[in-house]
Amino acid sequence: MSNLHLQKKICMLGVFGVGKTSLTERFVYNKFDESYLSTLGARVSQKRLSPVELADHSLVQVEMLIWDIEGFEPDSPLMHQYYRGAAGALLIGDLTRPDTLATLPKIATVFNGIAPGAPVVVVANKQDLAGKGARGFEVLRDVAREMDCPHQLASAKTGEGVQESFEALGRKLVGKR
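^ that's the sequence the OP posted. Answer follows.
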């Protein structure tokens, strides 16, 4: 049995205000801040996932370099620079704003054009406000089906589903569904 350590660049993608920074802060530092500060450019954080056991019983340790990128602007040359070299992405939408989820296939298309074959996981943030997001559940299901990728519900505020979202991407990075 051998152990492998991988360091992977991960992009947090979505339009402005969906909670990319809040999800990153919750995952990396286990904290949540109610105040909204728009990300300008990109902020990079780092966190190691729990080891993933493969079929041959070897362990893979994935260390994520998480690029929290400003809101999506499809024609921005900066987006192309930010996505370059990425191993995967979390595509973030706001469950209470279904239009933010509906933009994810376009974001994925741009991302996959720069990082072909990089796995993605769709995350619907703000699950704690689910009562306001009934239409969001439908859009989430449709988007994940259209993109043929896993999806997660999460709440940066409560922490629910945050770790699981990153771990789902980590499993895809090592080839384990």
